[in-house]
Amino acid sequence: MSMLLLRNVTYSTNDRKILKSINMRFKEGMSYSILGPNGAGKSTIAYILMGVIKPTGGRILIGDKDITELNITERAKLGITLLWQEPARYDGVTVEEYLTLGGKLYAGKEEVRKVLEIVGLPYELYHSRLVDKSLSGGERKRIELASILLLKPKYAILDEPDSGLDITVSDLIDRILDYLKRVGTTVILITHHENIAKKTEFSYFVCGGKVVRKGFSSEMVEYYKRGCGKCPLLEGMRDGH
Asked: In terms of Cα–Cα distance, which of 69, 78, 77, 25 is closest to 48?
């Protein structure tokens, strides 16, 4: 069974240490959350996994293959994809064209219909709409999520998938995780919300650029709820340190 690994990954910028010896392992077909407060370094981990930025130290591997130096395109070919916090906009492209990469990704009408319905966008109302400023941020986020479902990647990194969405987001995340599990995708969900992290199987709790604790998601959520209010490190982050 192949596994995506972070080994002693560090990242610094402007003499500031953002990540400090991060070790994580993501097994095939499981769902994970990287949980922690804002400013903990969670999105930096997502960008390093995708190849948006390169670590200052450490290695990234899939099984025995070292992918540390691979760029975004090369990692995408290995089945890694990232849902950005801020969805993209491509003026002049219809929703269906966007989802199928302009027809390069083979997908029938019924498959496009299915993923749009999973994210709560009726096919008849959305397949021919343009992905432009006429769509709300929440609609564009749902379209991005649909694109990941259609790709069926080996590894889906979902960076704050609930941001910009309405109160129906809990059921939406359930449907997305269920679909990705059925197609064998490993999910890595970045969040600071306990109720979202609890939907995954295993969690890494990150604070101050370090993995503070790891374990079953229900246990990590309880730790987060109990411990963070008294944590001096978190108080320092709140004060801007």
From this structure: 69
Q: CA dihedral in degrees (56, 60, 64, 65; nearest 10)?
A: -90
**What is the C-alpha to C-alpha distance for residues 114 and 121, in angstroms, rounded to an integer?**
10
Joined tokens for residue 24? 């994580």
Give residue-wise pLDDT tens across range 62-118: 999 999 999 999 999 999 999 876 656 666 789 998 888 766 677 788 899 999 999
As a whole number of angstroms, the distance between CA 115 and CA 126 comes to 12
Report the C-alpha gap between 156 and 82 in whole angstroms: 6
The two tokens of residue 44 are 């930096």
* Nearest-angstrom CA–CA distance, 200 and 188: 9
Q: How far is CA 140 from the centre of its chain?
A: 16
- Give the pLDDT confidence of 112-168 residue by residue, as tens digits: 999 999 999 999 999 999 888 888 888 888 999 999 999 999 999 999 888 777 666
Query: H or E element: which one contains 217?
Result: helix 217-227
Q: How far is CA 3 from CA 25, 45, 142, 165, 197, in A?
A: 7, 16, 28, 31, 21
- Give ∠ CA 173-163-142 in degrees, rounded to 5: 55
- Which is it for strands 57-62 and 65-66: parallel, antiparallel or unpaired? antiparallel
**Token code pair at residue 163:** 């941001």
